[in-house]
Specification:
181 residues, alpha+beta, PH-domain like, five-stranded mixed beta sheet
Length: 181
């Protein structure tokens, strides 16, 4: 379709893989560092660990490690591959339609949601993904894989629509640098 401008929503379809999970975790850590949630999580874990040391109980230390593990993006990177090995039918197959007028329609497994543009407050970009940040929720995101379409024109159109509604993305690079794109 060279020379033809498409209209309507940009359609994406992809299966989430381990590299996606690593990039999501990296971006989530970046978002948490920008806010107070990392300090609160760390403080809570330290309190539990301190209680375990003071009471000479391993429960506090184990509790602190468990809380830290469950509340960090690294847990996603570690647990999703294990889930897939035990239940291969649980492939994280996703589809999305990004519409310049109406927002984003997203489906994964048997769940489907539609979000207007006012639901989003910003955009994070990694090498493989766009993460749309939820308004009023610092670390809640919707993931869109750039590889969801094979057509370069559609990727450019996707970026243009996202930037028009959410502004320029914060870029999170693989070497843990974050810059404005």
């Amino acid at each position: 379709m060279t020379g033809t401008t498409r209209t309507g929503p940009v359609r994406l379809e992809w299966t989430t893989d381990r590299a996606d999970l690593v990039e999501i975790a990296r971006a989530m850590v970046h978002l948490r560092r920008r806010g107070r949630s990392a300090a609160m999580l760390g403080g809570g874990a330290l309190l539990l660990a301190g209680a375990g040391v003071l009471t000479r109980s391993p429960v506090g230390l184990v509790g602190a490690l468990l809380v830290a593990f469950l509340l960090t993006p690294a847990s996603t990177v570690l647990t999703v591959p294990l889930l897939r090995r035990r239940h291969p039918e649980v492939a994280l197959r996703s589809t999305a339609e990004v519409d310049a007028e109406h927002g984003v329609r997203f489906a994964q497994a048997d769940i489907a949601s539609t979000f207007g543009w006012s639901a989003w407050s910003g955009l994070v970009e990694t090498e493989r993904l766009y993460l749309l940040r939820r308004a009023h929720q610092r670390v809640s995101v919707l993931v869109l894989a750039k590889r969801g379409t094979d057509e370069p024109q559609e990727r450019e159109r996707l970026r243009a629509v996202l930037e028009a509604h959410l502004g320029p993305p914060v870029a999170v690079h693989s070497r843990r640098r974050a810059t404005r794109a």
